[in-house]
Specification:
homodimer, 234 residues, alpha+beta, Jelly Rolls, Arc Repressor Mutant, subunit A, 2 domains, four-stranded antiparallel beta sheet, 47% helix, elongated, DNA-binding, transcription regulation (chains A, B), Cyclic nucleotide-binding protein (chains A, B)
Chain lengths: 234, 234
DNA sequence: CGCAAACCTTGACCATAGTCATGGATTCGT
DNA sequence: ACGAATCCATGACTATGGTCAAGGTTTGCG
């Protein structure tokens, strides 16, 4: 197979690592890999699920289109991220659509294989449950952010997830374009621009797709403030 | 046991009905029941999970408190609703807090029992996964609504979930107080009042906790409109 | 019954973010 | 290297929803 390198990446994903050791090779050897162009759909909302998806390279977004045409981005995955676990195991329909937002390489694990393996090892079900729960958790956090924070605070939160260090200055690269960042954070691109502008007062400078954070701790405090207080600091 | 009536209700819950027949009695006989006063906590965020919870009577909300003090309501359950499934099975900590918003009766299924039963029957894991996935799905819908709809449209959507018929006139009862409805829909009570006022133009009249819907179909159209269009119809 | 507390509505005002339009910058294909 | 297209920033304006304050209504308790 020409995919040994891809498999190595897959083995490093949280989903695969949580699976029982003895089944990993079986699963990987039956997985298939596919390249997606930017803008190409991986699957559509309401389609029947036939596989679990693991991103090998590039970026993939999950989103819903509301009846009025507005698009709500639910999550964005890159190398090592997996999605569709619960749906694949249960054989129901996708509640969201998936689209490659850059050229992307995605591994697909056929759900038929997964289901048959699960019958001999219930631990697989637990791995799926763990992944599903992580997604659940991330949605709960998104809800909290949407309901309790201003746009600028959500942007700050987003920047913090991008930098690993937890204090001092830091420089991060915006991983995908601003239209998508805006969607992920529940705002319009124009509002994102203004949020960036506002974050200057919290020690953040944006140039192209680089963000320079003066002091990570200060930015974290900014996200935890009451919106009114955050304003008064400006 | 004095709880036969409660168990009958539990048997009717989606979670219990999805469990394998032969384990239901075991699970129910080891479950325990507890009464909660209004405002009492069922559990707190970051506590370790020891049970799955099934609401027998009354209403229970799941919520998170943001660092800035704002509260985000994640979901609200009543008779037959269950929560904490995934967390119980995995033995991790709750990502949310749970509080009775009316006097409530809640059944608790110890996770230790669940875990040991699951070892002999992996189908139990699938039932848990199914419930977890339903919660996931409902969060995705909430995200979509928050990102793509105005307050008034979310209120309309909420009213529609309360009435079973799908066309013609309908009368529904608001199941809990407006502060909580507002929280559930991501707005302040004042905004909820105004949203109700605005829905008058869509054929909805609110009196106390009764909502009279002139035409369900018309209200559904209202939720599907672009906010600007919805406005122009007023 | 009567008072107090909780709940709800309304008004005035303002902050936040969406819309529309414009112009600058960057990227890409030829 | 040129031009087209895309992406991004900004300004002006508007709509939505949050905040603060006041007042009405309902509920529950003594």
């Amino acid at each position: 197979m020409a995919h040994e390198h891809y498999k190595a990446i897959a083995r490093n994903s949280l989903l695969i690592r949580s699976l029982p050791e003895q089944h990993i090779e079986t699963l990987l050897s039956h997985a298939n890999f596919r390249h997606y162009e930017r803008g190409e759909n991986v699957f559509l909302q309401d389609e029947e699920a036939t596989a679990i998806h693991v991103v090998i390279d590039g970026w993939v977004k999950l989103f819903r289109v509301a009846p009025n045409g507005a698009e709500a981005v639910v999550s964005v995955f890159t190398r090592g991220g997996s999605f569709g676990e619960a749906v694949a195991l249960r054989g129901t329909n996708y509640p969201v659509s998936a689209e490659a937002v850059t050229a992307a390489e995605v591994m697909h694990i056929p759900s038929s294989l997964l289901i048959s393996l699960m019958k001999e090892d219930p631990q697989i079900g637990l791995s799926i449950l763990a992944s599903t729960f992580m997604h659940l958790h991330s949605l709960v956090e998104q809800l909290e952010q949407l309901k309790a924070q201003t746009g600028a605070q959500r942007v700050a939160e987003f920047l913090l997830t991008l930098c690993q260090c937890d204090c001092g200055p830091s420089e991060v690269i915006l991983p995908y374009d601003k239209v998508l960042i805006a969607g992920r954070l529940g705002m319009k691109p124009e509002s994102l621009s203004r949020a960036f502008a506002r974050l200057k007062t919290a020690g953040v400078k944006i140039k192209k797709n680089h963000a320079a954070i003066e002091d990570v701790r200060r930015l974290r405090e900014y996200t935890e403030d009451d919106p009114a207080d955050a304003w008064s600091k400006a």
